[in-house]
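User: Some background: our group keeps a shared notebook of sequences we're curious about, and every so often someone picks one and asks for a predicted structure to add to the entry. Today it's my turn. The entry only has the sequence so far, pasted here. Could you supply the structure so I can complete it?
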Amino acid sequence: MSGTWDMLGTGGPVIALLALMSLLSVTVIAVKLIQLWPVRSGAAAREQALDLWREGDRARAQQSIGTDPSPAGRVMGYAM
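Assistant: Of course. Here's the predicted structure to add to the notebook entry:
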């Protein structure tokens, strides 16, 4: 632990600023991952809707995809 403090003392405010910016960037990445995780959800519902669409049951396919809140589900529902 003393090596870290020695490095901060040697580099001064530049090293401290770099460490702070690194921590900030990792935080932003983590927040964005959490925010965008729901975009990937609903793959099973989309697959089910596509299967129903291929079988010719268009009404049930549209009903099935209509409850998917993800952007891909909304686009697929609009396309159907």
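Suggested note for the entry: The CA atoms of residues 22 and 53 lie 48 Å apart. The chain has a mean pLDDT of 86.
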